[in-house]
Amino acid sequence: MKMTDAIIKELDMEETKAPLILVIGQTGAGKSHFINKTIGDKVVKESSGLKSCTSKPEMVEVQVDEHQFLMIDMPGFNDTRRDTVRSDATILAEIARMLTLQTQLGVQLRGILYMYDISASRMTGDTLRQLEMIKRICGEHCYSNIMLVMTHWPKSLADQKANGCAVKEKDLRTEFWRDFVRGGSIMKRFDNESISAQAIVRTFAGKQNIVTALQEQLAQGLKLSQTSAGSFIADARRAEEIDPSPKSSQERERLERWRKDEEKLPDDIVRDVRKDIKNADSEARNNKRIPTVALILRWLISVSALAMGVSQVALQVE
After folding, report:
1. Is residue 64 part of a domain?
2. What is the pLDDT of residues 125-169, one digit of tens each?
3. Relative orientation angle of helices 31-39 and 194-202, to the nearest 10 degrees
4. Where is this region: Disordered (predicted)?
C-alpha cells in the first residue's frame, strides 16, 4: 500500500489545517513541560526528575499568535518505568506510526522539536545512536525544520559556568549536532519561561511543510525494516552483538529483546494504519460522533506502535 494514497480522500471527515510538530527526546528532557509553557497552562502531565511520565504519544492543540499547530508529545527515548533503555525498534515504530497517521489523515508535518537536557553530564552511546536514527528518519532535506532545544538551562551566569553549559553548547554545535546545524537546524536555549517556548514554536510559522525520508521510503512500498532507519538499527544491534568485548547477562538480554522488537516491526505499516483509521471512523459514527481528523488522530496516537489494529482500545480512553 502506497503512503501517498491517503485514506482521508475516501472518508467524509472534517479536516484540519493546523500543521503538526513532533516533540521528541530523552526522558527528563522536559518535553511535556515545554508544551505546557507554550500553552501557558499545565495541560500535559509532566515528569518529576528522571521518572518517565509520557508512556504514549499525546496531542495538544497550540496557538502562537495567529498560528495554530498540533504538537505531539512523544514518549521519552529511555523508558524509566521499566528501568531500561527502550529499543531503537520501538522508538522507530512509534515515530513511523505517527508519521503514517499524519499522512493518511491529510495533516501536514511542519517540523520536529528535539529536546536535550543541557545538564546531562555526557552524551551517551544510546543518545548518539538515536541521533543517527533521527537523521535517517528525517533526511538531510528536512534538517532546516528541526529545532534543537537545550532545556534545563540555568538562569544565573554562575550556575551556567558551574555546569559548563557554554562548553557543552559548543560541543553540541561543533561535534554532536554538527551535521544538523550545517543542514540548517537551529539550536535554541529554553529558559523555562512561556515567552521562550512560544518564541521557539513561532519559528515554525515561517517554515514550509516537509515530507521526511522515512515517509518517502514507505511511499515507495518499502517495509519499515527495509528503510534507511530500519536497516540502521538492525546493523547497529548486530555490530554490538559481534563485538568481542565482554558482555554482562543484562547486556545480552537487552540485545535479545531488541532483536525480538525488530522482528515485531510491521511489514505494512500503511495498511495497518489505514485499517485503524477506518475502524475508528466507523466506531465514531456508530456512537453518533462526528469523525473529525483531530478526533481520530487523538484517539489513534495512543495505540502502541507494536500492537497495531486495536483502535477499539483507543476509543475507550477518549
Report:
1. yes
2. 889 999 999 999 999 999 999 999 999 999 899 999 999 999 999
3. 90
4. 239-258
Centre a 10 Å sphere on the Cβ of residue 239 and count the other Cβ atoms it contains.
Answer: 9
Q: Report the number of distinct structural domains present in the chain.
A: 1
Q: What percent of the chain has pLDDT over 90?
A: 66
DSSP letter assigned to residue 76: P
- Among 13-17, 84-88, 149-153, the least confident range: 84-88
3-state DSSP call for residue 64? strand
Listed in sequence order, the residues at least 6 apart from 119 whose beta carbon sits closer than 8 Å to its beta carbon are: 152, 154, 163
Q: Is residue 3 part of a domain?
A: no
Of 227, 184, 20, 187, nearest in space to 112 by CA: 20
Q: Are 266 and 247 in contact (CB under 8 A)?
A: no
CATH number of the domain that residue 231 is part of: 3.40.50.300
pLDDT of the residue at 41: 66
- End-to-end Cα distance, the chain: 29
- Grid cell digits, residue 261: 522488537
Query: What is the model's pLDDT at position 21?
Result: 97
Contact of 266 with 298, CB cutoff 8 Å: no
pLDDT at res. 78 = 72
All residues at 6 or more sequence positions from 260 whose CB lies less than 8 Å from its CB, including other chains: none
Is 80 exceeded by the pLDDT of residue 306? Answer: no
pTM above 0.90, yes or no: no
Give residue 84's identity as a one-letter amino acid code.
T
Kindly give, in sequence order, each residue whose CB lies less than 8 Å from that of residue 83, ignoring residues fewer than 6 positions away: none
In a domain, 9, yes or no: no
Q: Could you identify the residue written with the cell 495512543?
A: 302
For residue 301, what are the domain limits? 16-316
Phi-psi region of 82 (alpha: psi -120 to 50; beta: other; left: phi over 0): alpha
Q: How far is residue 131's CA from residue 96's CA, in Å, rounded to a whole number?
A: 16
Whole-Å CA distances, 41 to 38, 62, 114, 282: 8, 11, 21, 34
Percentage above 70 pLDDT, the chain: 86
- Asked if the structure places residue 312 within a domain, the reply is yes
